[in-house]
Amino acid sequence: MTRLFGISVIPAISLAVVCYFGYYAIWGERGMLALSSTEARLGVEHEQLAQAQDRRARLEHRISLMRSGHPDADLIEELARGQFLMAPPGTLAIRRPANQP
């Protein structure tokens, strides 16, 4: 009886260890099933990163148009129109000649 018990202890412990690590390899926090949800979240984050980089590139281009020695007249007019749309009704805009401050 003792010999049978001694022979079956090592396989039983080995089976328990394999089952433990097997369970966490599939259903654990970093297992195979969690991999698909992590990849989905990563895809969403990559899309948001691409959108943020695109917005940044557009803003950097607009800033470069304003920083040059001769700012882009169309951009200045666009910004001015945006400011006037926020003005209260009845506000008049009078254009000054370029040589006046």
Distinctive features:
single chain; 101 residues; mainly alpha; rod-shaped
Structure report:
The protein has 101 residues and is mainly α. The chain has a domain at 45-84. The chain contains three helices and no strands. The protein has helices spanning 2-27, 32-67, 73-85. The longest helix has 36 residues, at 32-67. The N and C termini lie far apart (106 Å). The model has no long low-confidence stretch (mean pLDDT 84).
In short:
The chain has about 100 residues and is mostly helical. The chain has helices spanning about 1-25, 30-65, 75-85.
Radius of gyration: 34 Å
Major pleated sheet: none
Main structural class: mainly alpha
Give start-end ranges of low-pLDDT stretches: none
Element layout with pairings:
Blueprint lengths: L1 H26 L4 H36 L5 H13 L16
